[in-house]
């Protein structure tokens, strides 16, 4: 259910931090990194379909979650940033284990003749083991960037709300500030 707040007559609620260029860039960057993660995960999932040993539903679910988070973060949902960071940390651990071979064998070790080639989603020839290993290895820096940018975005206070007089809100929309950074108005209850 949507949160209902009573605003004094003649006042408007604004989000001053959302107007800052750094906040806009951070939001866009988080969305882009989430989409890059989805593309890498889908490439590995489709290209190594026969070798994922039951992880395909998890991969598709993870991609769907990342896409939903990207959609809502693009709409300024600050609360999803810690969740994106934690999921990025989990995927980072999985990618490190899969690429470095901490679980027994890395994707790069599968290039020898003793391992069968991976088959793609449709049953055709899948990606080579070196290609799959490279894609999984690329997930490592992408997830590190996701974690760092999600933390930075969370610290920017996208959710800060201020009650300002209607005239000041109109002046802000026209691009003219109203003197002080927060217009001297009181903060609305959140």
Structure description:
This protein has 190 residues and is mainly α. The protein has a domain at 20-145. The protein is 54% helix and 4% strand. The chain contains 5 helices and 2 strands. It has helices at 21-47, 56-74, 81-100, 129-155, 166-174, and strands at residues 11-14, 162-165. It has a two-stranded antiparallel sheet. Helix 1 packs antiparallel against helix 4 and helix 3 runs antiparallel to helix 4 (129-155). The radius of gyration is 23 Å and the shape is elongated.
Map the helices and strands:
Elements: E1 11-14, H1 21-47, H2 56-74, H3 81-100, H4 129-155, E2 162-165, H5 166-174
Antiparallel strand pairs: 1-2
Descriptive labels:
single chain, 190 residues, mainly alpha, two-stranded antiparallel sheet, 5 helices, 2 strands, elongated, disordered C terminus
């Amino acid at each position: 259910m949507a949160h209902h707040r009573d605003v004094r007559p003649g006042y408007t609620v604004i989000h001053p931090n959302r107007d800052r260029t750094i906040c806009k860039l951070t939001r866009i960057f988080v969305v882009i990194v989430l989409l890059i993660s989805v593309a890498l995960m889908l490439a590995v999932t489709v290209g190594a379909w026969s070798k994922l040993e039951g992880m395909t539903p998890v991969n598709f679910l993870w991609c769907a979650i990342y896409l939903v988070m990207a959609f809502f973060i693009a709409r300024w949902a600050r609360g999803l940033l810690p969740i994106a960071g934690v999921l990025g940390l989990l995927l980072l651990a999985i990618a490190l284990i899969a690429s470095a071979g901490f679980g027994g064998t890395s994707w790069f070790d599968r290039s020898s003749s003793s391992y069968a080639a991976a088959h793609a989603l449709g049953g055709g020839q899948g990606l080579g083991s070196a290609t799959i290993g490279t894609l999984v290895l690329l997930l490592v820096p992408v997830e590190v960037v996701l974690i760092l940018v999600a933390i930075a975005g969370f610290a920017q206070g996208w959710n800060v709300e201020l009650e300002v007089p209607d005239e000041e809100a109109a002046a802000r929309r026209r691009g003219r500030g109203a003197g002080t950074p927060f217009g001297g108005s009181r903060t609305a209850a959140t």
